Amino acid sequence: MSGAGRLAVWVTAVAGAAAAVGLGLVVVLADLDAAAQAATVAGGLVGLVGAVVSVLTLARSGAPTGSGGSAGSSGAAGAVGKRRVRAGRGAVAVGGNVTGSALGRGARVTGPASTPRPGAGTGSGSGAAEVDVRADREGTAVGGDVTDSAIGDDSRR
């Protein structure tokens, strides 16, 4: 998690704790009707803030552009340049090159790295900068060059 993400989590936790203490004090120091009114206002504000955060998150993720890519996204679907990377449940999707990696359940890469062949695995794929990568449920997809890797369940290199 990034520094901004950690800060957002802590701010949310502190604000939630402060709201809970405040509502508890209203119940104790005032009456139940005043506490109900305060809780109604607090709930409305939380709902409004949640809606704003949702809209900002959707806007930040970006809708597909005319070139077939996205402006950038985060979370379960990350972006590499204009490439959109998506993985279903239990799937593995990589937006760039893969070298010396084990992708899949039980996959293993052991021993020293293989000697690379001339001109292999150094670029970003053959013009794949705008190619979307998608692996459906339990699938594996790579959007770049794959070298010296074990790909698939129980595979070995």
From TrEMBL:
Keywords in alphabetical order, please.
Answer: Membrane, Transmembrane, Transmembrane helix
Q: Which residue ranges are recorded for the region named Disordered? A: 97-157
Q: Where does the sequence pass through the membrane? A: 7-30, 36-59
The protein's name is Uncharacterized protein
